[in-house]
Amino acid sequence: MGISAWLRGNVGAMIISWFLFAISGSLTMPYLSKYLHLLGASEVEIGVVRSLGALAVMLTILPGGVLTDVIGRKRSIIVGTWGIAVVQFLYAVVTDWRQFAVVYVVDWALHFYQPALTAILLDSLPPEKRGAGMMLTSVLPQVPWLILPPVGGYLLDHFGLWGMRLSFIISGIISVTVAVLRMKALQETISVKPVPREQLVREIINAYMFWRGLNGMPRFVLYVTLLGAVQSFSSVAMQTFGVLYATTAVGVDNTAWGIIQSAATAVGIVFGLVLTPVIDKAPRTTALFSGLLLIAVGYFLVSAWASAVALTTAAIILGIGAEVAMSIRRAIVGDYITPENRGRVMGLTLALEYIGSILGGVIVGYVYSVSPRLSFAVSGFLIALWAAPLVKTVLRGL
Q1: What is the per-residue pLDDT across 302-352, written as a single tens digit (0 to 9) for each?
Q2: In terms of pTM, does the model score above 0.85?
Q3: Which of 163, 209, 223, 273 has an alpha carbon within 20 to 30 A of 254's alpha carbon?
Q4: Contact 360/236 with Cβ under 8 angstroms?
Q5: Which of residues 378 and 220 earns the better pLDDT score?
């Protein structure tokens, strides 16, 4: 199945819109912590801001999982995308880290539609292509990360705060384009039936008791769901503090950090394209274990060796491992959960991932303020610990 065949219908619309979002994200996301630092935030405060954003999206993503099954995938996606487009312009005008924190919380609260994004993809992919489809929709939109992170770093190095403000203005313009594209191109994948208001309110209230959804889950899906929280906890070390570690402990500038991000993306894209045709042929357990092993090795490498070479190598390894692990975790949901319940299950899955981010923002932020290397070592240890139950199954399949 050629790439052109994937660029059709809902899958194609999502790939293109995520590609456009990646243009804006690759300018701004690698430097959010640096932006916060320039606005006056300490390492601990940066971690708290990360936690507040994760808490905001968790509180909205739970009813979001219900809404995607009740009001439809497309409507949820359109409302959230327009909200995020507006918020990008607000980032450009904040004057201190507390104002940034408020905008950041609003931004992440508007990500309530994430279950709808995954659900509409799973609905639109044939069962035998789910792993490949999830991998491809993760890999192709990353192409802008090959070029633009150094551009964002250059703007920050030479223009400081105004460089970041310009990047967010560009992000806002692109986000508006994405909102229009999704309005015109996406097609609903489920029959939306009117639901009495009382029933809807009851389902939303029940959604906040998300732990109930864990009961009756297939054992492997339960493991994968809880693994998402652990992976999110661990990812805080690199995603939030990677730029600070690079520019302080390692001693590279923001432009160099952007180059590292681009190099990691380049290798990740190549591996993703190679793995896309074959990932569904490998046992899910083996593929998942491989991804987790790469993540653990990446974190241990950063903690053991503070150098540009180690940081670049670790970023590459982490990127590949994370893409494989996430793609397989999402595919497993598609394998085990029926279409009418995927929105709710994805809401539960994402909620647990954000709980991991909430705890990670506070705990990893504190550990990083004490010892940057220790924060990476702790992250690697947690991933290795949670990958251990898969070893027996993997060895049995060899």
Answers
A1: 998 888 898 999 988 998 888 888 878 777 776 766 666 666 676 677 778
A2: no
A3: 273
A4: yes
A5: 378
Q: Give the whole-angstrom CA distance, residue 397 versus residue 394.
A: 5
Fold: same for 1-194 and 209-397: yes
Residue 267 amino acid letter: V
Q: Would residue 358 be called left, alpha or beta, if left means φ above 0 and alpha means ψ between -120 and 50 degrees?
A: alpha
Both tokens assigned to 267: 């290798």
Tokens of 263: 């190099």
- Token pair for 24: 């804006």
* Nearest one of 45, 80, 75 to 60, comparing CA atoms: 80
pLDDT: is 6 or 63 the higher one?
63
- Separation between Cα atoms, residue 157 and residue 7, nearest integer Å: 37
Considering the domain delimited by 209-397, tell me its CATH architecture: Up-down Bundle (1.20)
The 10s digit of each residue's pLDDT in 66-124 is: 777 777 788 889 999 999 999 999 999 999 999 999 999 999 999 888 878 878 887 77
Q: How many CA atoms, within 13 angstroms, populate the side-chain half-sphere of residue 71?
A: 18
Out of 3.40.50.300, 3.40.50.2300, 1.10.8.50, 1.20.1250.20, the CATH code matching 1-194 is 1.20.1250.20
Q: How far is CA 133 from CA 12, 204, 317, in A?
A: 11, 30, 21
Residue that the structure tokens 């801001």 belong to: 49
HEC sequence for 170-213: HHHHHHHHHHHHHHHHCCCCCCCCCCCHHHHHHHHHHHHCHHHH
